[in-house]
Amino acid sequence: MAQVLCLLLMLLAPSSAKDAGKIVIRMEARYRSAKTLQATFLERYVENGSVVRTEAGTAYFRRPGKMRWEYERPEKDLFLVDGKTAWFYVPADHTVTRVPARQSGDLRTPLALLAGQMKVSRICSHVEFSDAEKPLVESDVVLRCLVRGEKQDHASGEEPENTLAAGANDAVFFEVAPDSGELARLIVRQAGGISVEFRFENWRFDPAVPDWMFHFEPPPGVAIVNGELADGKT
Does CATH place domain 16-226 in 2.50.20.10? Predict the structure, then answer.
């Protein structure tokens, strides 16, 4: 009986690259149907296996190439990509860091897929099921993205997933509900034991979000610093 059960599980398990590709197509179709997206998120920053920072808030995505991350806990910060520039505003410090979007090394950048044409192949040369990363929800699957080696020179505001791509040495994992294609979690692992995990809930498709939310005007008296957003929270 045990052997029969094992055989059935093997037959039912989505173990082939073809099955992984079908889930990717389902995820792409689900998010490509909306111009604007909204979700609540939990972000965990990990170094050498230890969680050093946990934050939460609401994220917004709009085509082409715009993102807004409103951090609400433990303190209010703002990360915004307006299509050309990435801004990180810390009200408590009265400073904002500014960097051209295509030069940003920020670890949120694989999520620019949600603000673009939603083609996973633009950042992943191959997608496969991951045995190393277990899903938070038993019915979900975890997909490992083999990141493309180079950013494309012709990247533009119309192709933000090329402009905002993960580095070739990063390991990117998507946790997805296989039936609906809904994205539950994204993990970016880098060399040196650094990783960032984003957990998503309460997805909304085409919510009523005004255009001004994807533009940044520095408040009076705020210092603007030109620099690299290396880990998303400098």
Answer: yes
